[in-house]
Each structure stands twice: as C-alpha cells, then as structure tokens.
C-alpha cells in the first residue's frame, strides 16, 4: 500500500479553460483548420504543389476520424498500412498484366484481399479500397503513385502530431467532471429517498440523469485508458493516470445506484407496503451510507484544494454491522437489503482507494486476517472426493 502523502492542486482558471475547450467541437474545428493550412503549405512551398491537396486531405482525415489520441494513432497505422500494401502491389499487378487492364482488374482484389485476410486487424477496409481503385488509373504513372504515398504517410503523421500537441482531448478532466456530477446526482436522490420526499416522477427523471453520467464516465475512462497507452504521453494525461481505478469504481457506484432506483420504480407500491419499522431502519442505513458517500465525494472533487481524509468514511466491519441489524424476512426486503449491501461494498472500495496514503489500521488488519483464515478453511471443510 502506498504511503505517499495525498496532495492535489486545483487547475488554474486558464488550464481549466483549455481542458474544457479541448473537449469541444470548436477545438475539433480549430485542429481541422490548422491541419488544412499546414498540410497544404508544407508541400506547396517545398516545390511539390501537386501533393499539397493529398497531404492536406490525409491530415484532416486523421483529425476528423481520430477524435482521441488513441483513435488517431489507430487510424494512422491502419490507413498507412493499407496504402503501403495496396498501392505498390496493385501497381505491380497492373504492370505485369499490361496492356490487358481487364485481367489486372480481375487479379487485383484476389491478391490484395488474400494478404488482408492474413492480418485483418492491420488494415482499414474503407482505406484499402480507395488505393485499389486508384491503381487502375495510376498504374503506369509513377509520379502519381509517389504523390499518393507521400500524401497519405506524411499527412496522416502530421494529423496525428496535431492531435497530440494542439488541444489534445483531456478525457481525464471530462472524467473528473462526470464524477462530480454523478456524486451530486446520487447523493441528491438518495437524500430525498431517505427523508421520504422523493416522488415517482422525480425518481424517473433523476434516474435518467444519473444513468447518462454513468455511461459517459465509462466512455471517458475507456478513452483515457487508451490514450495512456501511447509511447509519448501528454502532461494532462499523466495528471489523471493514478485516478483510473477511482473513475471505474465511481462508474460502478453510479451504476449500482441506477439499478437500485430502477428497482424502486418497478416495485414502488411493494416498497410502500413494507413493514414501517423495518423500512425506517433500512432508510436509516441508507442515510449512513449517503453520509459516507458525501465525504468521499468531497475528497474526489479536485476543483477545491482540501486536506486528505484522516480515516476511512466506511469500513467493512461497519457495513457488516449495519446489514446484520436488518434481517430480511421476505422477498422484497431481501431485494432492498441486497441493493443497500452492494452500494455499501462499493463505498468501502472507494474508501480504500481514497485512503491509500494512510497506514492500515487494526480493523483492516483483522478483516484481512479473517478473510485469509476463511479462504484457508474452505478446502478443509469441503467433502473428500470419491
């Protein structure tokens, strides 16, 4: 377990603006414009005006279809490989079958698709079909073949570099924003539930908003994880590398709350008919878990600098005592108790993630020892094989 002190610095207003802008459509338009200008200017002023349009077009394709660093890299590799295979080999087929263009047209797809079938993951089908048809026209014109390959390779590389350097999408900032939104929505709806002020129409509306936040957080986590696999990583990606497990755990918490709220909506009348005493104790348990969630949400919010947690908001022993005090006497009480338990287990996991800087306390050591003893005793208790 890490013993490094927990610390974070909120982003400056300028860096926060850059992070928001990098995720906007305007940033995409800006990068496409820069790609067009640079992609056209380099070959034009270098004395190769015929290659300027092809290079600018490839640069813009990388930026348009590769909306993240990882997707831009993947599209760059596949499109370059598709052209490097299809153009030279296709030209060779046209040469060998000249002047019979019909024979070359018959043999061309058989050769190219046979090669693609060996490693289909290396090729982009929408990219390999264009050079296959172009060689039917450029097969006997080497300068056109050279322009195509230079335009594709250099243009794709330029687009990839622009995506990494000019306003790279800050998916970590997006994930942090979604964590803040999801926490606020979860705590709001569960607070209203525990105080009995939540009606059915509000329940459905708040469930839909939280579901959207959870789905978007899952996407932001996946994009950030892929971007972190780059050989060269931008500083804004490094800033949120260590928060990947937190992002995923918060997504699971929000999903758990959404599943619970959907159960509440489906069995709303059955919940109203539960034993009042048991329901009051169950709502009290939710209130305790929401209090722990609120402490976790505060420390997860990086917009304001605040001290680290000095203790775990929720321990497994506390959750166990809470669950054992709520006996499930019917099917529906078992269902609602199961949701409370699942939510609590995820909050315990978040408590562990947010307090990794603290040394393990006696309760944590005792829980770990009991879990180890239980797992070791299980095989001995099992009946012998016959």
From TrEMBL:
User: Keywords of this protein's UniProt record, alphabetized?
Assistant: Membrane, Transmembrane, Transmembrane helix
Q: What are the start and end residues of every segment in region (Disordered)? A: 358-386
Please note every region of biased composition (Basic and acidic residues): 358-375
Domain of life (superkingdom): Bacteria
Keyword Transmembrane helix carried by entry? yes
Biased amino acid composition, Low complexity? 376-386
Instruction: List all membrane-crossing ranges.
Output: 29-46, 52-72, 84-115
Q: What is this protein called?
A: Aromatic acid exporter family member 1
Please name the source species: Paraburkholderia caballeronis
């Amino acid at each position: 377990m890490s013993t490094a002190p927990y610390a974070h610095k909120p982003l400056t207003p300028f860096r926060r603006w850059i992070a928001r802008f990098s995720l906007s459509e305007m940033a995409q338009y800006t990068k496409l414009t820069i790609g067009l200008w640079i992609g056209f200017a380099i070959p034009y002023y270098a004395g190769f005006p015929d290659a300027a349009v092809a290079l600018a077009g490839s640069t813009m394709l990388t930026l348009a279809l590769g909306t993240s660093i990882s997707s831009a890299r993947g599209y760059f590799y596949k499109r370059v490989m598709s052209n490097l295979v299809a153009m030279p080999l296709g030209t060779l087929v046209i040469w060998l079958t000249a002047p019979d263009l019909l024979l070359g047209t018959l043999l061309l797809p058989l050769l190219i698709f046979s090669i693609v079938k060996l490693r289909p993951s290396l090729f982009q089908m929408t990219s390999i079909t264009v050079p296959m048809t172009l060689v039917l026209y450029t097969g006997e014109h080497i300068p056109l073949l050279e322009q195509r390959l230079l335009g594709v390779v250099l243009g794709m590389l330029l687009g990839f570099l622009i995506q990494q350097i000019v306003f790279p999408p800050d998916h970590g900032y997006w994930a942090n924003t979604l964590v803040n939104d999801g926490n606020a929505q979860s705590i709001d709806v569960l607070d209203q539930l525990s105080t009995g002020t939540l009606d059915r129409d509000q329940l459905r509306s708040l469930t839909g908003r939280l579901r959207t936040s959870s789905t978007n957080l899952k996407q932001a986590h996946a994009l950030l994880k892929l971007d972190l696999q780059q050989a060269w990583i931008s500083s804004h990606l490094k800033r949120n590398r260590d928060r990947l497990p937190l992002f995923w755990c918060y997504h699971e918490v929000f999903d758990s709350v959404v599943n619970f709220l959907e159960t509440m909506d489906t069995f709303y009348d059955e919940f109203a008919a539960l034993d009042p005493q048991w329901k009051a104790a169950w709502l009290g348990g939710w209130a305790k878990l929401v209090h722990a969630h609120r402490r976790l949400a505060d420390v997860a919010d990086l917009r304001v600098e605040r001290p680290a947690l000095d203790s775990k908001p929720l321990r497994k022993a506390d959750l166990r005592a809470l669950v054992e005090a709520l006996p499930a006497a019917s099917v529906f009480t078992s269902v609602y108790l199961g949701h409370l338990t699942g939510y609590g287990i995820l909050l315990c996991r978040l408590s562990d993630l947010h307090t990794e800087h603290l040394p393990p306390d006696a309760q944590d050591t005792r829980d770990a020892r009991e879990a180890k003893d239980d797992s070791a005793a299980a095989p001995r208790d099992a009946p012998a094989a016959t």
